[in-house]
Structure formats: structure tokens, C-alpha cells
Amino acid sequence: MPVLEKDGAQVWRRHTLREKLVRWFGWLLGLLVFAICWQIISESTTWFFVWDAPRIANDIWTRATPPRWEYITQLGRPIWDTLNIATLGTVIALFLAVPVAFLAARNTTPSALFIRPVALLIIVSTRSINSLIWALLLIAIIGPGVFAGVIAIAIRSIGFCAKLLYEAIEEIDHAQVEAITATGASRWQVMAYGIVPQILPAFAGIAVFRWDINIRESTVLGLVGAGGIGLQLSSSLNVLAWPQVSLILLVILAAVVISEWVSAKVRGAII
Amino acid sequence: MSHRELDDMLGRKWRKPHFVTNPVLRWSLIVGFIAYLIAAFMTIEVDWGRVYEGLDRGWQFILAFTRPDFISRAGDIWGGLLESIVMTVAASVVGILISIPIGLGAARNIAPLPVYMICRGIVAISRALQEIIVAILLVAIFGFGPLAGFLTLSFATIGFLSKLLAEDIESMDKVQAEAIRASGAKWMQWINYGVQPQVMPRLIGLSIYRVDINFRESAILGLVGAGGIGATLNTAFDRYEYDTAAAILILIIGIVMMLEYLSGVIRARVQ
Predict the structure, then answer these.
(1) pLDDT digits (tens, 9 = 90+) for B99-141
(2) What is the CA radius of gyration of chain A?
(3) Looking at the complex, does the CB of residue B142 fall below 8 Å from at least one CB of chain A?
(4) A34 and B54: CB-CB below 8 Å?
């Protein structure tokens, strides 16, 4: 126990002197790194704009309120597109994620040495690139529009869904699989009767969870030209139509809240 | 015991139980979903000719991954990457520091009701607004550059970390905290010795996870002018310089994989 001699009496301390020194240097190093980072940010900032920021913020606020409510009649189609991007993207992603997950799970992969690393690479690379970047890339390849948005969301979701699904597959109860195997079932029958019923609740949960995230992401895909309500947002921003911008932001906020509510309800019903 | 006898005992042929047991709900879900899919496919306009033309470019992009070009735009790539990392570090530090008091305030078993309501409100706002939309507004207010990105990421970190920290505090072991309080500890001592040791491992794990997310997000903030590697990437796509874009994507994936590995190691050590 670390103690300190003080006037002949022993006083309890949380850390020994050595621990204290290590901690102190750790904090110093952290502070130094932060100071350097701040220095770099500060150098590339126009401080005049920052001091002017409260006035600008106030100005934007007065321009943006009240929202232009009648503009909502033009938002029906973009909202429908956004919903389609999220839903179709999720459906496609699930179709692609299921085989990847089975190939990546340790207990179902045909070859842990060759196929599993490939499946894991697919999972990591699709997951670590944001859907906006995928959209950017797909627009350069297949042209702007809703279709690029659907594919972008689908690719981005593969990694996420496959990762959660393969973790669920690895956690299944092995006794059930063995029981089915003992009846003389073929590989596919074991899959259908031993594994699939065990992961179906997890699968449904993942699908709804990802759909919720995809609604969020598809609302902004339009900023790079991939369809949906983000397209309206970016064109309104470009012409500085702030009352329209504030209305669109309210609609996006409502969509996010509703989708989160739906997903929470459905997941509550499954689990 | 042959298979027929089980069927005889049931009085009908055995079938797998359905995932949704209520037949009305099951069929309405299936029919509704198919109707939605048809409606969605009818309204999506895909220019297949354009897609076909794009396939060639898509193939070129995939080929670009075999010969990424780190050299010809090296200055832009390193500049953007450095800015992304600097933004990530600074925003993570500031975001974590701010989210600790807000997380304490958003835990119902520690904070009085008014404080609780305010902190939960901050968390809800931060979580509902997506990074990219916050970035657009902050760029409009503070001007172009990494400062806007830094503020965006800090703001997003607060919502994420405070919520999870508050949930962790709410589910902590009350007995330990009470024991500290019974020894006559002041409020600060109570937090330091009763609460902090219980939530620290998870807080460290979540903070590192958030650093990882912040880096991923910092890669797209450049699309709306908030600094970081995104601007370089966008330019590379616009100029059809796929080899440079591939180099940037490889760097992003590499750094994300490294961070994920690092966070796994650190989380395994603290828990």
C-alpha cells in the first residue's frame, strides 16, 4: 500500500511516487500533443470570421425563421426517394451480408485460412469508408441519382451487418447444431434447421437497426448528388434560401426521430 | 420410429414453426413489403445506358487499387491527412473533457432533476443532428477550415459519450458509492472515489472507440469545407484521378484498421 511519512505518522496515498511521476508525464505529453494540434488548427483559421461569428449566427437565425411551410408540398417526392434509398439499400446489403457473415464466422467458414481473411477484409473495408464517400465514388462511375444512393448505402451496410451477424453466428448454441447433425442431416439442412432459427432474431434486429441508421445517412447523401432530400438541402443552401433550409432540417429531424422510434419498437417486440 | 409416426401423432405434416407466429400479422407484413418493393422499383429511375458506360470506369477504379499513386499529389494527401488527424485529436480531447460533466449531469442517480433535464436535452440535440449537417451550419458561421470540423466533431463526441457514460453511471453498484459517502466524503471526493473507479474502464474503452469514429467522420467533413482529407478526396474524384483516390482510401482504411486494433488491445487491458 502506498503510504507517505508525515510528521512520523503514515498517511494513505492513492498512488506511489513512481506511479505519480508516470501519470504526470503522461498528462504533460497529452497536453503537449493537444497544444500542437490546437496550434495547427489555429494557424489555418481566419480569426476575424470567428470573432464575427455571433453576429453571423444571429443573422442566419433571423433569415431562417420562420421556416417556409408551404415548401413542404415539394418535399414529398424527395422524402419518398430517401425512404427508398434507405430501405432498398438495407435489403440489398442484407442479401450480400448473409453469405459474407457465414464465410467469416469461425464455426461455419469453409476455410479459416483462406476464405475467412477475405470475408474479414470485405467487412473492414466496406465499414471504414463513409457512405458519402461511396456515393461520391459511385456518382463518378454510374452517374448521379437515386440508384447511386441505393448502391452506396448497400455497400456501406454490408460490413456493419456482416460483422454483427457473424458475431451472432459464433455465439450460437452448439448442442442444437450437433442434434441436427446427429439425425443425418446434410450441410444445408444443418444450416436451415440448426443455425438459421438461432440467428433469426438477431438478424431481424440487425436489419431494423441498420435501416434506422440508413435513414439518417440517406438524408444527407443528396449533398453529393445521390438523390433524396439532401438534394433539396444542397440546392436551397446554394441559393441561400434559409427558410427552406430550416424547413428541410426540421423534416430530416422528424424522419430521424420517427425511424429511431420505429426501430426501437420493432426491436423491443423481437427481443 | 420413422418420420411418419411423428406426423401421425401431430395429425398433420410437421413444419418448421414460423418466425412471426400470428398468421394475419405475418401475411400482412409479407404483402405490405412486396407492395412497397413494387412501388419503390416503379419510382426509381435508372439510366441503364449510363450505368453500362460507367462499368468501364468502375473497372478502372478497381484496377487503380493495384497501383495507388501516393506520389504525384503527396503534398495534398499529407496535408489533408495531417489536418484530419489534428482535428480528430483536438476534438476528441475537448469532446471527452466536456462530455464527462454532462454525462454526470445526465445520470439520474447523481444529478438533481433540473440539471438532468438540461443535460439530457443537450445529449438529445447532439445525437439527433448528424455531423455533416452540423458541419454545414458551422462552416456558414465560422468560415472554411479545420476549426469548423473541430467544433463539429467535439459536438458529436459530447452526445455520444455523455449518453453512454450516463447510462453506465446509472447502472453502477450503489453500495460502493454509499460506503464512500458514509465516510463523510465531500461531493467531489464521492465522485472521485465512489463513482469514477466503477466507470473508468468503460469510459476509456468508449473514448478510444470515439477517437476511431471521429477519424472516420473527419474524412468526410472536407466535402462541405470543414477541413481534413475529404476535400482532397473530393478533388481527386472530380478530376477522375482514381489512382490518387485509391491511395487516399487505402490510407483511410489502414489508419482505421490500426485504430481498431489499438482500441481492441487497450480495451482488453483496462477491462
Answers:
(1) 999 999 998 888 889 999 999 999 988 888 888 889 988 988 8
(2) 27
(3) yes
(4) no
Structure-block grid coordinates of residue B105: 449531469
Provide the 3-class DSSP secondary structure of residue A241.
coil
Cell of B125: 440535440
Output the tens digit of pLDDT for each of chain A's 271 residues: 677 777 777 777 777 888 889 989 999 999 999 999 898 888 888 888 888 888 888 988 988 888 888 888 888 889 999 999 999 999 999 999 999 999 998 888 888 888 989 998 889 888 888 888 889 888 888 888 888 999 999 999 999 999 999 989 988 888 999 999 999 988 888 888 888 888 988 898 899 989 999 998 899 888 888 888 888 888 898 888 889 999 999 998 898 889 888 888 888 887 6
Interfacial B residues in 197-236 facing A (CB < 8 Å): 216-217, 219-220, 223-224, 227, 230, 233-234
Give the span between the Cα atoms of B77 and B229, in whole angstroms.
Answer: 7
d(Cα B169, Cα B158) in Å, to the nearest integer? 16
* A223 touches B: beta carbon within 8 Å: yes
Residue B259: which residues within 8 A CB-CB, separation 6 or more? B208, B211, B212, B215
- Nearest CA distance, A149 vs chain B (angstrom): 11
Complex-level ipTM:
0.81
C-alpha closest to that of B245 among A181, A266, A136, A156: A136
**Distance from C-alpha of A148 to C-alpha of A140, rounded to nearest angstrom:** 9
Cis peptide before A54 (omega within 30 of 0): no
Rounded CA-CA distance A142/B50 in Å is 6
Instruction: DSSP for B227-267, please give it.
Output: -SHHHHHHHHHHTT-HHHHHHHHHHHHHHHHHHHHHHHHHH
> Is the Cβ–Cβ distance between B100 and A44 less than 8 Å?
no
Three-state SS at B185: coil
Q: Which domains does chain A have, with CATH numbers?
A: 3-63 (no CATH), 72-270 (1.10.3720.10)
Q: Which three cell numbers stand for residue A28?
A: 504533460
Q: Would the CB atoms of A38 and B90 count as touching at under 8 Å?
A: yes
- Bridge partners of residue A11, in order along the sequence: A4
